[in-house]
Amino acid sequence: MTTPPPPGTNPYNQQPPGTNPYSQPPAPYGPQGGNPYSVPGPPAPAPRRPRSVKGILKGALSVVVIGVVAYGGYTTWFGGAATADAGDCLHAGNAAATGVISVGDPEFEIVDCGDPGAQFKVADRQSGTDGNCDEPYSRYTQGGSGRDFTLCLEPLK
Prior knowledge:
The protein is an alpha+beta fold. It is built from 1 helix and 6 strands. A 6-stranded mixed sheet has the order 2-5-6-4-1-3, with no helix packed on it. The longest helix is centred in the middle third of the chain and has 26 residues, at 53-78. The chain is rod-shaped.
């Protein structure tokens, strides 16, 4: 013999009389409106925030830093002997630089003529690598990339 189910339960999941056994259960969060197959439109753009003084100063500082770095790179790559003109003083970074000097020998840097590191004063700048300098001057030549030149250097020490 079997025991009957407790009162108030539906052991066989039967529908009460007068209800449609094929109806959908109600939505758990209330009725769902609209077409379930529609694609939503693009999201609304976010409102623009007003620019703050701090943001403007950070942008300006970034521009200055980029400018300083770019200038340093330019003077390192194209500076030194490449931009030296008559009257400029030079310091040879890695060589004593005597006699005929060609590119790659010293790493010239333009310095103030009163600087104790100044080793040469540019007496003359000539186009091309076949320039001639008088006897007391050292001759520095640099060629390539259409920037061929000769510098006549007067030793300062």
